[in-house]
Design goal:
single chain, 241 residues, mainly beta, eleven-stranded mixed β-sheet, 2 helices, 18 strands
C-alpha cells in the first residue's frame, strides 16, 4: 500500500487544507488550548504492513500552533518476503510556529520489519516537542525489526541526525528491554541540560535549546511516566503546553 497524508495548519488554530489516505487519517477535534489546532491520528486500516510506503506531512504556517496525538497504537506486521514497511513523517514549522506531537505507540510484531523516518524542519523561533514510543513485540512473542531515523534542522542547518537500530543484532544496545520511549524538545524558551537519571533514562543536551531524552524499559506506561519526569527536569521545568 502507498498512502500520503498532508495537513496545513494556519495561525489561530485554523486547519487550512487536509488530504488523507488510509491508514493515516487525521481528524481535527475540539481542544482546550485557545488558538491551537488539535489533530488526532486515527488508524483507518491495518498497518504498517510488509511492503507499505506510508507518509505523513504537516506544514505549520508562521505563528501557527498545533498538537498531534494518536487515538491508539499502530501494529507493524508482515511476513512473506514483501520487504520492510516504510513510515515517513515530516513536519515543517514556520517562524514562531509550535508543535506538540505524540503519534502513539508503534508495536513491532514478530516477523515484521519497519523503517521509520522523522524529519523536522524548523524556522526561526519555532518550537517542537516530539515523542516516540516503540514496543518490540507483543506480550509473549519475539520482536520484529525496526529502525528509527531522526533528521532535525533549524534554518536549514543540522540540529540532530540519528539512526537507531532496534533489530535483534542490536539487542545489547537496549539491554534486553522491549520498550523505547524518546522525546525531542527544541524550543528557544528552553534551557536544555544533560541529565542521567539512571543507566536506562538519559536526557542529552543537543544544543542550548534542544534536548533528546531516552528511556528503556519493559513496560510502556512506566517508560512514559519516566520520560515525562526526565523531560521536565532536563528542560528546566515543564515544557510549554
Amino acid at each position: 500500500m502507498i498512502a500520503r497524508t498532508t495537513a496545513v495548519v494556519e495561525p489561530d488554530g485554523v486547519l487550512g487544507t487536509l488530504s488523507c489516505e488510509p491508514p493515516l487519517t487525521l481528524r481535527q477535534v475540539h481542544g482546550e488550548a485557545r488558538g491551537r489546532c488539535e489533530l488526532r491520528l486515527i488508524g483507518t486500516a491495518a498497518g504498517p504492513l510488509a511492503g507499505d510506503d506510508l507518509s505523513l506531512t504537516l506544514r505549520l504556517r508562521p505563528g501557527a500552533r498545533a498538537a498531534l496525538r494518536a487515538t491508539g497504537a499502530s501494529l507493524a506486521q508482515g511476513r512473506g518476503g514483501r520487504g520492510a514497511a516504510r513510515l515517513s513523517i515530516r513536519a515543517e514549522l514556520g517562524a514562531r510556529a509550535s508543535l506538540v506531537a505524540d503519534p502513539g505507540a508503534l508495536v513491532v510484531c514478530a516477523g515484521s520489519r519497519v523503517d521509520v523516518r522523522l524529519e523536522l524542519a524548523l524556522d526561526a523561533g519555532a518550537a517542537v516537542q516530539w515523542r516516540e514510543l516503540v514496543v518490540l513485540g507483543r506480550t509473549g512473542e519475539p520482536p520484529g525489526r525496526a529502525t528509527l531515523r531522526w533528521d532535525v534542522t533549524r534554518l536549514g542547518r543540522p540540529v540532530l541526525r540519528q539512526l537507531t537500530d532496534l533489530s535483534q543484532a542490536a539487542a545489547p544496545l537496549t539491554g534486553g528491554r522491549r520498550v523505547l520511549a524518546c522525546a525531542l524538545i527544541s524550543d528557544p524558551g528552553v534551557a536544555a541540560r544533560t541529565l542521567v537519571a539512571s543507566p536506562v533514562a538519559v536526557a542529552q543536551r543537543v544544543d542550548e535549546h534542544t534536548l533528546l531524552a531516552t528511556v528503556l524499559d519493559d513496560d510502556a506506561a512506566r517508560a512514559t511516566r519516566q520520560l515525562d519526569a526526565l523531560c521536565a527536569r532536563a528542560a528546566g521545568g515543564p515544557p510549554r503546553p
